[in-house]
Amino acid sequence: MENKKSALDKNILVVGGTGFLGCHVCTKLIKEKYTVLSISSKKPTTKRRVKGVKYILADIRNKKELSEYVSKWKKNGLKIGFVPTMGALHSGHLSLIDAAKSECQIAVCSVFVNPTQFDNPSDLTNYPRTLTKDIQLLETLSKTRVIVYAPTVSDVYGAETIATHFDFGGL
Predict the structure, then answer these.
(1) Residue 36, beta-bridge partner list
(2) Is the dihedral of CA 37, 7, 73, 132 positive or negative?
(3) Backbone φ, ψ for residue 33 (5° rounding)
(4) What is the pTM for the complete model shown?
(5) Quick one: which H or E segment has residue 68?
(6) Three-state SS for 109?
(7) How many whole angstroms separate alpha carbon 61 and alpha carbon 147?
(8) Are 18 and 44 in contact (CB under 8 A)?
């Protein structure tokens, strides 16, 4: 009986598999009896389409698109991990994303500075926003298996950003 890790090892995710190199890599993997899923922001041309590859289009810009792609990935048998952050990533965040990658084929890392988490407006104003650096750090973990989701406040909350205040007394 195959163990869980070896079963996952026979599923290969190829990002950008619609290009020249990607289609050749996919062909080789299919011949070696791998299950190949290819994620790309473009549809493969007839010339680049490889028989046996499941193609998934992905260009994530908002929560609706993220939800649609997660549904597609799940339908294609992919296991997805989610690591919510407020950015300004550090080694603790990276270890969580590594853990998600070890358990799943795709890790989604959100980078969202949530205004409702700040009681003091100056704390929100001064919170570091380092999306470019965060993406570069995430790329050191994987350029193919980590998806960055960086929504806007209006994408998350719509027109109303309302924080609910709780008073827990002397806790």
Answers:
(1) 12
(2) negative
(3) 70, 30
(4) 0.65
(5) helix 63-75
(6) strand
(7) 11
(8) yes
Cite the beta strand spans of the chain per DSSP E: 11-15, 35-40, 54-57, 80-85, 106-111, 146-149
Residue from 24, 90, 93, 165 carrying the catalytic annotation: 93
Cα-only R_g, the chain: 19
Take residue 20 and report the two structure tokens written for it.
């020249």
Residue from 31, 35, 34, 37 nearest 16 by CA: 37
90 is annotated as an active-site residue: no
CB neighbours of 76 closer than 8 A, spacing ≥ 6?
Answer: 37, 54, 56
Q: How far apart are CA 54 and CA 37, in angstroms?
A: 5
Q: Is 108 exposed, middle or buried (0-12, 13-18, 19+ CB in 10 A)?
A: buried
Q: In this predicted model, what pLDDT tens digit does every residue of 129-161 receive, in sequence order?
A: 998 888 889 888 887 788 888 888 888 888 887
Letter for the amino acid at 58? A
